[in-house]
User: Fold this.
Amino acid sequence: MSREDQASAASFGGRVVVSAQLLLLAVCLVGSFGVLLVAALHTDDLPAVLDPGLERLGDPKDSLPPAGPDSLWNPLVWVFEISRVVAMFVYPVAFVALVLGVPSLVRTWRIGDRKGFGWLVIGTGMWFALAVLALTPYGTQLRGWLLD
Assistant:
């Protein structure tokens, strides 16, 4: 087995972490910025994307597909509601993504898996940027609007 094959086999955990990071990132972005954009389009107030709040956009649930017994099989309801719940918990999800990403970065660097290391840098870096954004006043305002 060549060195690259050994590195690839040994960094399977790193690739699983990258996959989880990118999947959760996509879900979190749909649940926060996707819902925000839909609400801004629903109220015809695109500048409200920069200043999300109840007074401008209304309740976030009002702009989503209607949830109820008739819409149980509507996949858009499931996608947006699950994504919105993940976006509400952005702080713990970002913490877990970073806690799993940093040791995986070290591990893939040590075993020489450059491709896995590159993807981990991207995934961990994007979660770090999202965590910093969530801690800014804009991020806390967006999260507060999602929680209403």
Q: What stands out?
A: The chain is about 75% helix and 0% strand. Helices lie at 3-10, 12-42, 54-57, 75-88, 90-111, 114-135, 137-147. The chain has a mean pLDDT of 88. Residues 54 and 145 are 6 Å apart (CA to CA).
